[in-house]
Amino acid sequence: MRKTINANKNLDVANRVATLITKIIDNHRGQLESCVIDHYTDDMVNTWIQSLTRVKQTKHLTLRHQPGHMYHGGCIEFPPNSFTYPRLTSLSLHGYVLRTSHSFNNCQNLKTLKLSCILASDLGVFNSVLASYPSLEVLVLDISCFKESGPLKIDNKRLKLLQVLETKKIDGIQVSSTRLDSLAIGRLSCGKDDFVLRCPRLRFYRNVWLAGLCYNISQEEKNSGHEEFVVTTSDLFRYFPTASLSVSLDLMNTRQVEREEGESPRNKFLEENNKDHPFPNAKFRVETVWMHHFSGSEEEFALASCLIRQGTVIKRMMIKSTSFPARKKLEIETAVAKLQALIRKKEQWQLAIKCF
């Protein structure tokens, strides 16, 4: 339909294509693993949902409303319990207006929810929708309300990955999850003080949250949605002049630092430094690196020296040593002096390495 319909085509053509989509769904034999529909007209959407969930038992469903100049849709009244189906584990909606949350009642098994360009009559609709997903693990939001209201409440105990791309007319966001370990923040309609996190696994330093994107990685194991999450989040960096990246990493944990059996983290980083494709890659550059809890260990020194030698850090490397006793601080200062000696005077004249 996306290839067939444009602003110059008439509504009759759109309806004929919608009928063809219905026929294709009905003619499919057996269950569906995944289905993605881009549509311009709204008349058949609820019929598709009913067939795809109840009859075809689709696991991953994506519906994208694509309004043209002639077609003003999106204000679809989804029937109650439209997405309440036990086999549905992933739901992605784009370009709709939600007036109630009744269609999302008791979605016990849904693990992934993506709401893109979704407008609600009030914030209570979104809060009710999110409260209907006790098993939610991945949440992606690009949402807005007709009028400003209170905070968005994300209280999903199993939530692991959260991506807030953009919000409009939402005064605050409150996130509570004991399992959340990856977070990406785009353009918010609230200030950072109104973004409240109660997530013990998420090591998030608010003082380095700059205007734009903040992405925190703090996980011990890869999960099903992590790879896609990283890819989609990295695409966002192109739209922000400044961004923050927060990484919580245990260099001695083999699940977090991939290396050959028996290989030390120091050898890993120094070896990567000599390859044609340096760690993390040749194009990745940051103005400032903040290294919290830097102890001056061999592994930490190897990582810091790798970032300096490759020119990854441009202006400042800030190393926090205040959390250690005075005896340990002397060792850290010695390590910092060695890092300063690695600076190439001509190419890295802007770079400064300091303790704080």
Automatic annotation (TrEMBL):
Transmembrane segments: none annotated. SUPFAM superfamilies: RNI-like (SSF52047). PANTHER family: F-BOX DOMAIN-CONTAINING PROTEIN, OS02G0105600 PROTEIN. This is FBD domain-containing protein. The lineage of its organism: Eukaryota, Viridiplantae, Streptophyta, Embryophyta, Tracheophyta.
